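Hey, I was hoping to borrow your eyes for a little while. No rush at all, and the record is pasted right below:
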Amino acid sequence: MSFKFHIGAALCAALGFSALSALPALAEGIMFHDAYAITARPGAPSGAAFMAIMNATGHDDRLLGVASAIAKKVELHTHVADPNGVMKMTRIDGGIALPAGATHLMQRGGDHVMFMGLNGPLEQGADVVVTFTFEKAGDVEVTIPVDLERKAEHASGDH
């Protein structure tokens, strides 16, 4: 293994990043922390994934899209308030800016990965493979654990 790989792995360990979710992205300098996927209830036709995405590449980048074989459609989503103050979920057009050195939170009630038309149930403890497409870093494949027991820390937009 290369010296760069060992330094990146040590950095992830020192920062408390999950080795399993961060290692696939080390070559590109994009790291994922505390990733998990959920559904609102067993058998739900949709699900979501949440995480922190860190850009350690030294240059600005942009998350353009996501893909996964677990659903018919996978999109970047967020929550916005309509004119009446009612929160609605909507697709993010144009991607998500990820400045050099910054971390972007994908969290309940905010930006997240949305799985629509699941091909099968998300089961506790299973893994979901998601490909994140970045403007500069390219495609980064991440394995995300399903954690149906995880409670919202900022319970403003549970799916």
User: Anything to note?
Assistant: The first helix runs from residue 3 to 15.
